[in-house]
Amino acid sequence: MKQRFSSLDVKVIAHELSTSLVSLRVSNIYDLSSKILLFKFAKPEVKKQLIIDSGFRCHLTEFARTTAAAPSVFVQKLRKVLKTRRVTAISQIGTDRIIEFQFSDGQYRLYLEFFAGGNVILTDNELKILTLLRNVPEGEGQEPQRPGLTYSLENRQNYGGVPALTKERVRDALQTTIRKAEASAAAGKKIKKKSGDELRRGLATTITELPPILVDHAMRVTGFDSTVQPSLVLENDGLLDHLLKSLEEARKIVHEVTSADSCKGYILAKTKPGAELAPSEGTDGDRQPKDNLLYDDFHPFLPRQFEEDSSYTVLPFDNFNKMVDEFFSSIEGQKLESRLNEREAAAKRKLDATKADHAKRIEGLQAVQQLNVRKAGAIEANVERVQEAMDAVNGLIQQGMDWEDIGKLVDRERKRGNPVAAIIGLPLKLHENTITVLLSEAAEEDDELEYDASDTDSVSSDDSGYAGTEASARKAPEKRLSIDIDLGLSPFANARAYYDERKMAAVKEQKTLLQSENALKNAEQKIAAELKKGLKQEKPVLQPIRRQQWFEKFLWFISSDGYLVLGGKDAQQNEMLYRRYLKKGDVYVHADLHGAPSVVIKNSPSTPDAPIPPSTLSQAGSLAVCASSAWDSKAGMGAWWVNADQVSKSAPTGEFLGTGSFMVRGKKNFLPPAQLILGLGLMFKISEESKAKHVKHRLYDLPESIPSKQSPTIHSGGAGSTVGEEVTAENAESDSEDSDVDFEEDAEQKENPLQPTCQQGERDEFSERDEENPPTKGISRLTISEELPTPSTAESTGARKGEAGDEQNESEAATEAGSAPLTTSHSPAPEQSGRSTPQTQKKGQQPKRGQRGKAKKIAAKYKDQDEEDRAAIEELIGAAAGKQKAEAEAKAKAEREAQRAAALERRRAQHQRQQRETAEHEEVRKMMLEEGIETLDPEEAANLTPLDALVGSPLPGDEILEAIAVCAPYSALARCKYKVKIQPGAQKKGKAVKEVLDAWKAASTKKGVVDEKSEDKEKMWPREVELFKALKPEEVVNVVPVGKLRLMLTGGGGGGGSGGGGDAKGKGGSRGGGGGRGKKR
To answer: Is the pLDDT of residue 928 over 80?
Structure first.
């Protein structure tokens, strides 16, 4: 099996990596093992992962891998230097197996070596080694490598360029090959080579740019005999020309392979022993049945020698990188899977051995009971014989005969045919005051004529009295039991003793059964814990990297009516939802709570005028409330919704709306208070062929089935007929510290949050009053003052502070939820007149008495003093320093004032420019809403297709592609097979998500929970188990919009509420082992 790159593989992979990775930045670097690294590259909308196995391989991967818990020292140094650096060039060093990565136009270089032990070396622009994976000592033909030394490139293969392929070069290569062979023969070295392989091997070591497999392929293509000896080729010019032609063909193949952006790849696989496979020619490698194949080799071209070999199956790929990833990832996945299966099999064997041991103990106790009953019955059936044997032995003992002599006497009498001695077994146990008698059972005495003597399996005597030897069993003509008789008791007392032993064994059996159940449970728990601990140490099976859908970057769910509902996670996402995804016919949902996100219900693009069902509106409102501060305060409140054309970014004159803040004009449609209940569930993406089986109640399929009376009448508010002007800010609960969107009600209003801000009657009065006096009458009199006038309302105060640069107050002003129209003050500010009055009085003041004469004396005294004399005198008396300091302070103050004025002017100009851009955007958006024009890119428009591929419960026969976690109001997850109820609580969401995933995984291991045929919809299916086992907790945590919660798990692990076995009741094993209505955790 091929394990490392050849020089041609390195050339091809470097060429493809240069096409794929140049211009991307390093986002992070990870350890997979001591010699395998994972580089992540990214730029907007593009993400790549590069696997580097030092000395073996380097390729992009489409499979997710588990990284080390903490980075190694080498990875830390790489992160410190290369993180966020842009890749500017990737190339091969000459024709050697070395790839060079250049970062930041060669400021840093990373060298990957794929020969010998391999290495990963980081250098600066002068090739000084900064860090490396392993230090290399100095050796034969190898320069030392350690930090601080210079990395040498001069001694690499063909670093200065590949020499031309000429006849002289080929002749020199052949002569070198002959000399090496002669030197090896003279030294007595035995070189393991195939017969006729000398020419190909010799060319591989002399013409280094061509690997041996390529030379062999070129020889077969051109018809050259590769078994010819190098000396014969050197002597024959015709063979030399033919060989030169073959090598030129090999150079041509190399040029063709690297001329395109991507190169084809071919995997050579063998069929597993015992597996039959009929490969379909001309199909892509991904579609081949890989379960019965063993990958053996890969090349960027199809070698002729393997093409003609029927034992190999060729799997073609359009991309060499993809082919290498499939080759190594498949082998790696098989190793991981085999290790996991081995651990599970070992745990199962251990548990089976424990169960077998307990079963053996119970069987032994039952056998003892049965044997004691048989012995007691045999004694009762042969009372006279037992009594005669006891009397005979007791009589001999009373006569004082030696115990050994008694045994010999019994043996002699048995041989003579004495019936009493015939039933006494030897040896005697007189030291225990017992003898062994051989008795037949009562039933056997009656039926002894009906049974053949060959069927007997009598038990002969031994020390225990419960088993006989095989020889004695063959000698016994009938089935007899070996029974120990106490000489001090009567036969009936001996039978009673055996009955007592049977009772004791029965009691012991009951105790053993009870203890066995507990012991088995403890053993199962212990083995399961050991298995879980062992599986954690093993890496999980490789899974393909799932590409996220476009809507997964938002809060999202699909309502019970089939509508896509989106919510922003922060102010930037709120802005994105408004600008890119809020279209004609959509509904905007929000709640007057701190942290409530902007929620958009996407309507059908084909029928934008169709009303949204009330259940979808209620679920969207629940998401807006649950994702706000109401979740932590546990105070459920109602949300409201408006039409898409009622939301805009055009603020009143003189005001500015920050990121994530919008104007809402017209009537708000308030929803009932929402329950603070969410659900975490799984949705499955099915293939296009499986979508036809799902006839669901989706708006895209049945828009006419939704009656218009299900939704309240949507009041559209235009620019000329507005009912009121209200400003709302849409805030999402975000971890970022720069989230400056806040509600003014939280800071100023101290009312009960459970009470509405305005009664319905008051709203109606305000609506009627506004309709009688539309605000458009006074618009012509509004002007923008150059100075900052004193505002007369809370809204205008926030707007003026926003012009001064206070973004917090901008957001507070923009989120004011009152319905009063905004007003602007026109009277001049009193501070301005107050400042001008003292200046006027100062100019007209008369000098005090005596000041005029004093001024005349000073003027006469210094009339002959010029400026130079005055400056010298002031410097002499120390007055110049104070003057200079005052002038410097005045100058600095003037500069600060100028900078402040310039900054204010720039901010004012920026706000005005943003207002103009917003106004232009709003005009265009209004026109597009009226005409129904889409502004999305073609790719985004293609993604906004019906979401029929996402289902909550797959049907039998569906091809399940992916599992996607979703957090939504619990009522929206009614059709989801796997779901868990979430309520406000104190548990962190990260721990809760792990608990849910562990509960599903644990439920899948129980007996009867998984339906291997994938037909019972109430049970887990193997594909579903495989997908949710591959889910990472880190990905699922990002879906949950709340921080603290409480899980409502069902009592049984396999129930529908949490174990994925059907409905929420979880009735018994048919639904996956669930039991009970549910309990709190």
So the answer is: no
